[in-house]
Amino acid sequence: MRFRDYFKDPAQQIISFELYPPKTAKGMLTLKEQVIPNLVKLGPSYITVTYGAGGSTQGMTLEIASTIRNQFDLESACHLTCVGASKADIEQIVRKISAEGIENIVALRGDTPKGQDRFTTHEDGFGHANELVSHIRSMEGIGEGTGLAVAGYPEKHQEAPSLDEDIENLKRKVDAGADVIITQLFYDNDTFYAYRDKVAAAGIDVPLVPGLMPIQSSHQIQRIASLCGAHLPDPLLEKLEDAGEDDKLATEIGTEQCIEQSNALLASGVTGIHYYVLNRSSQIHRVIRGIDRQNR
Ligand code: FAD
């Protein structure tokens, strides 16, 4: 089933998860034997799998997404970026994804590789995600039928001069054929609500799915927030500062915060929530048990 089909029924609030390819063979085994089965039990609609910088995890991204699709009979999606890839490379990967029976792709430009100060477009590739979306859509026999998600940034993409310009660029991705927008993680729902209004005002009418990441430690959150620019509300920041190096306590705080944040979003009528689960299933179990999903 493709992204757009999940969001057809406004009475359903769709829950999805995101995994990343582990760095070691042991990590891969744990993912396949423990993490994925535990996540599947929570009944998500689909699980997406990230794509490492420069395509470094291409094979593993596909392997994990294929395991989810073909061994666990759950819909999955491969993330795909433009970094270092020619059009021919992209076409080859998209065909491989399709050959595994995977019907969905999260289409991204990708981050600027470490050591470079700005994104360099492959000479025969794509400079922005809208071009990637458009190209996949144009692929004969595959493009039309593939579910395509793109990224949205409630706190603005770090390279964009303004939120308005970033939303104009988001519209280019939707106009090129994206079915759904998944947002960057955020911790302040008011930021998301303001973004949702601006996105709607720009005439973008595909589902906007908030992305949430439950906090697991103070250190981790500071690093991630500084990487993607996510703002942490003061009360949350204070609690995490008090937790200091106590990761168990930070996880408790993060779990409660994520349940509260999810419930407020669900009550506000979001079409679903995408959770960045960071390859751990126990915390997300508690979050999903704690949320009040309305299948209105
Ligand atoms: P784009 O949409 O191309 O935007 C990049 C910048 O260019 C923005 O500032 C935008 O405003 C501007 N822009 C866009 N289009 C145009 C245009 N036509 N003309 C001029 N300016 C334009 N990264 C990975 O490496 N692997 C992953 O698996 C991955 N998964 C992600 C999943 C989600 C849900 C999200 C939110 C992000 C993910 N990322 C991933 C990070 C993402 O690759 C980076 O944020 C990247 O810097 C931008 O990607 P994009 O697809 O949003 O790019």
Largest sheet: 8 strands, parallel, barrel
Spatially, the strands of the biggest sheet line up as 1-2-3-4-5-6-7-8
- Class from helix and strand fractions: alpha/beta
Number of separate structural domains: 1
CATH architecture: Alpha-Beta Barrel
- Total helices: the number is 11
Question: Bound small molecules, which ones?
Answer: flavin-adenine dinucleotide
Helical proportion? 40-55%
Poorly predicted regions are none
Question: SSE order, as H and E?
Answer: HEHEHEHEHEHEHEHHHEH
Q: How much of the residues is beta strand, in percent?
A: 5-15%
Which overall shape is indicated by the principal axes computed on the Cα atoms?
globular
Q: How many strand elements?
A: 8
CATH overall fold name: TIM Barrel
End-to-end Cα distance: 21 Å
Can you give the mean pLDDT?
94
**Rg for CA atoms:** 18 Å
**CATH C-level label:** Alpha Beta
Question: TL;DR of this structure?
Answer:
The protein is of the alpha/beta class and 296 residues long. The chain contains eleven helices and eight strands.
What does this structure look like?
The protein has 296 residues and is of the alpha/beta class. It has helices at 3-6, 25-41, 58-71, 87-99, 129-138, 163-175, 189-201, 218-228, 234-243, 247-267, 282-290, and strands at residues 14-19, 46-49, 75-81, 104-108, 147-152, 180-185, 208-212, 272-276. It has a single domain, classed as TIM Barrel (Alpha-Beta Barrel), CATH 3.20.20. It contains 11 helices and 8 strands. It has an 8-stranded parallel β-barrel, surrounded by 5 helices. Helix 7 links the parallel strand 6 (180-185) and strand 7. Helix 5 packs parallel to helix 6 (163-175) and helix 9 (234-243) runs antiparallel to helix 10 (247-267). The model has no long low-confidence stretch (mean pLDDT 94). Flavin-adenine dinucleotide (FAD) binds next to strand 3, strand 4, helix 5, helix 6 and strand 6.
